[in-house]
Fold this protein.
Amino acid sequence: MKATLIISVYKDVSALEAVLRSVALQKERDFEVIISQDCDDPCFNELIEKFRSYFPIKHLQQADEGFLKTKILNKAIRASETDRLIFIDGDCVLHPRFIQQYVRHIQEGRVCVARRVNLDATTSAKIRNGEKTIPGYLEMIRNKSTSVEESFPLWSLLQRKIVPLLGSNMGWHKADLIKINGFDESYVNPGFGEDTDIEFRAKKAGIVPFSTRYKTIQYHLFHERPNRENLVKISKDQFLEKIKREDYRCQFGLETLEK
């Protein structure tokens, strides 16, 4: 297999079904899927069985004990059978050439970074209920989706700026993740930390950010967002303390390191 697609999920079944429909239409066919579920709820079981005939799927779960996304992501890294690891969230629908582009660009020594279109509620509802798999340009503009330019491949010829890492659209070589000891499992609050921290440590280890914006195109389904300001502050303070360490490996990651 050429790549592993790791999908982070909680309990949003209609979103994951929309994502898996888009995965089934990928131009690249030689890949595996790992569903990384940060709880042990059976809500996805029937859906996953439905898609097993389209591509190999592994379903990882862990006890629902709070926000432990980094822990389940490390489990997915260990379970992966390829060197090219693609990370997305379970509410991000993929362009048909999404995996193909990552297969082309992931290589050891660099981390691929990209962005996403933020779909409006109307377009998202149509995708969730199966009326369509991916949206059209005019529809997104008409319905006031945002960051629609992220779905225009020609922009890659004009925009060279490297953007900060986004956890829902990134590609790694497994050797690089092993080098920095994977995700830091001490981050236990949503909104900040898991991607900011790993990007900082990767750069410190000499792993270079590489832009795949406008190539690895994805569409984020609309959903309401809770106010997480207080939790974000906790993680930001935690990050500011962690970056004082000299080691680019986190203490609690793919393996537990001595202090």
Summary: The chain has one domain: 3-242.
